[in-house]
Amino acid sequence: MTTQGWLFIATFLGLVLAITKPMGIWLHALYQGRRTPLHRVLGGVERGFYALCGIDPDQDQSWRCYAVHMLVFNLALALLTYLVLRLQGVLPINRLAYPGMAADGAFNTAVSFTTNTNWQWYSGEATLSNFTQMFALTLQNFLSAATGIALAFACFRGFARRSATGIGNFWADLTRVTLYLLLPVCVVYALYLIASGVPQTLAASVQVVTLEGAHQTLALGPVASQEAIKMLGTNGGGFFNANSAHPFENPSALTDLVQMLSIFAIGAGLTWCFGKAVGNTRQGWAILAAMLTIFLAGVAIVYWQEAAGNPLLHQLGVSGGNMEGKEVRFGIVGSALFSVITTAASCGAVNAMHDSFTALGGLVAMFNIQLGEVVIGGVGAGIYGFLLFALLAVFVAGLMVGRTPEYVGKKIEAREVKLAVLAIAVLPLVILCGTALASVLPEGLAGPLNKGPHGFSEILYGFSSAVGNNGSAFAGLSSGTPFYNGLFAVAMWLGRYFVIIPMLAIAGSLAAKRYTPATSGSFPTTGPLWVGLLIGIVLIVGGLTFLPGLALGPIADHLAMVRGQLF
Amino acid sequence: MKNDILSSLRPALVMTVLFALLLGLAYPLAMTGLGQTLFPVQADGSLVRANGTVIGSRLVGQAFTASGYFHPRPSAPGEGYDGLASGGSNLGPASKALHQRVAGQVAALEQAQPGQPIPVDLVTASGSGLDPDISPEAARYQVARVAKARAMNPALVRGLVEAAIERPLLGFIGEAHVNVFELNRRLDALPAKPAA
């Protein structure tokens, strides 16, 4: 670890804190449906969309209606993606003549991109045409992110509204977020990326005769336009197999820093937006403080372990940190920081291969996902996931002081707590059952590349990533089989919608309640005591169930590495 | 419930079509047009041409095996430095395969230049398999071999390396590195000298 490294981490944190409020203000305007300066340019498009759909954006929807409309829309998107993937061979802009995907692979990919997971069993540059990348995947990158932010808005309204029947209009939230936030930012962001060296062309490849006279074919395509939304929308699905480690996706240390910031930008802004929505921005800062504390602890562990390097290689006379799977231009600190950000935030883009991290470095990435990606989290999904933990935290605090728990002016009762537990229990249930199943069936055991505990880690990481809608991998796992494609698709579906539906039910139930003003007996939900309680609940409720699994995987792996045992 | 589903069908279908046209076609095509106009070199992949032939991209590494060139890092997928197959080795820290691979590379380096500490990036595969860079230490490590193969004064080669080092932005954003392709082009650009 170096001073420059810590300075880099501190700079990153400072920039996140600087972005939080401006982004929050913008999000809050969209949350309220207020007019923004961009309405002058895009207001006509917005109204046109509503007119063609025959919807009234001011019509409030009940939580059930909001949920059904969101689900049907997501289903339509998944179907479109599936069809484009299957029919790729006969669709245009396919200069390398790639055939359509098989049914299991297309099913997996359609679910993966609809659920904002972007798990990729395939290698982008060797499987997908530029048309598929644009028309299926870039599109999904936008809309799965917009869906997540819309859902967060619906969730906020549950807390903010009083004696209300509705939680907003899904179509209005979706359209506003897309037109006034994601699209304009991506236009500027993509231009920056192109200027920095990320290709943007309809050509699929170029032939190179190298200095030594060998032939090299470089894959190209409309990379920058996809890269921008891939990061901003915490999607994480790479244009290329190597994702943000590929020099065409992430050419320099500066693009790397910008990519890391763009992963956190909206998620951090949403914490401020939540505080503003419930009438006290300190509520938002308290949540952000709890998130960043967990985040920093993770960064410190990964940086320490990766900088210390692999003792097994040091014995061979090699000096330095763990550079297997890392790029020289990012180095140890740039790779360690990125890995914690991408797993904390449900992004899943990688600028280094997590599979080759030290055992404890890889453990932090996996554990971040298993916590439910509530440390900043995916756009929208992070904050509504975190609010579920906040409900549990006030419930626990209520039990301790013997009062009905309250949070931001709403009484939290049996129904909300049961629903929150239901949503939180989905993660460990599906991750652990899926991992157990794959660890005993021959189809599952055929997956891992590595042997010993690290092979088990690859399976555990895979299910964690799928259910958590992360999308990063211990990529040694060969998951392009009907077994894994099918199971992971189901896992991604469950992990997304079985959190969303209870969350929306909570929002509906809370919106209907009256406002309960805080009294001297209310548990304060802004100070350090609350932040500490939140961290404790996230770690204990979210993390504890995974400790046995982690002991069998990365912890055993670490002990083996220290003792010099190879697998 | 049934009413909710029925009322969702038209907006779901129309929104899918409208957004597909806007975000799946108009946006990437507009960015392609803008990118090709404003930054044509970068948008095409930062390609370098010599006598009309594309000899590489400044950003993407290529394989160098001749002893007169600086060598890049090991590349895991396929034959190595395959522009259609990016990725890392994905071998875990206690992997026997990783250990054997590194041991083999260390032995080869040791044989050529005994007794020098080996920079870690020279024997570890990158994440992309296309890493264009090596660390300044890894470049300095190779100076003696390159100078000998080219029958050049090592101080001259060393000078080229030092001049090719790209420093971190503001001193702490990124790592110091040397672009292998650029360094080797500079080597080739030197006037050929008769062997001593």
Automatic annotation (TrEMBL), chain A:
The membrane topology term of the UniProt record is:
Multi-pass membrane protein
Transmembrane region(s): 6-31, 66-85, 134-156, 177-195, 257-278, 285-304, 330-350, 357-376, 382-401, 421-441, 487-508, 529-551
Localization? Cell membrane
Alphabetical keyword list: Cell membrane, Ion transport, Membrane, Potassium, Potassium transport, Transmembrane, Transmembrane helix, Transport
Q: Main subcellular localization, coarse class?
A: membrane
Function description = Part of the high-affinity ATP-driven potassium transport (or Kdp) system, which catalyzes the hydrolysis of ATP coupled with the electrogenic transport of potassium into the cytoplasm. This subunit binds the extracellular potassium ions and delivers the ions to the membrane domain of KdpB through an intramembrane tunnel.
Similarity annotation: Belongs to the KdpA family.
Name of the protein in question: Potassium-transporting ATPase potassium-binding subunit
From TrEMBL, chain B:
Q: What is its main location?
A: membrane
Provide the family line. Answer: Belongs to the KdpC family.
Record's superkingdom?
Answer: Bacteria
Q: What is this protein called?
A: Potassium-transporting ATPase KdpC subunit
Q: Tell me where it resides.
A: Cell membrane
Statement: the UniProt record of this protein carries the keyword Transcription? no
Q: How does it sit in the membrane?
A: Single-pass membrane protein
Tell me which PANTHER family the record gives.
Answer: POTASSIUM-TRANSPORTING ATPASE C CHAIN, POTASSIUM-TRANSPORTING ATPASE KDPC SUBUNIT
Give the matching InterPro entries.
KdpC (IPR003820)
Which keywords does UniProt give here? ATP-binding, Cell membrane, Ion transport, Membrane, Nucleotide-binding, Potassium, Potassium transport, Transmembrane, Transmembrane helix, Transport
**Protein encoded by which gene:** kdpC
Functionally, this protein is described as follows: Part of the high-affinity ATP-driven potassium transport (or Kdp) system, which catalyzes the hydrolysis of ATP coupled with the electrogenic transport of potassium into the cytoplasm. This subunit acts as a catalytic chaperone that increases the ATP-binding affinity of the ATP-hydrolyzing subunit KdpB by the formation of a transient KdpB/KdpC/ATP ternary complex.
Q: Which organism is it from?
A: Novosphingobium organovorum
Subunit details: The system is composed of three essential subunits: KdpA, KdpB and KdpC.
Q: Does the keyword Cytoplasm apply?
A: no
**One Pfam family per UniProt:** KdpC
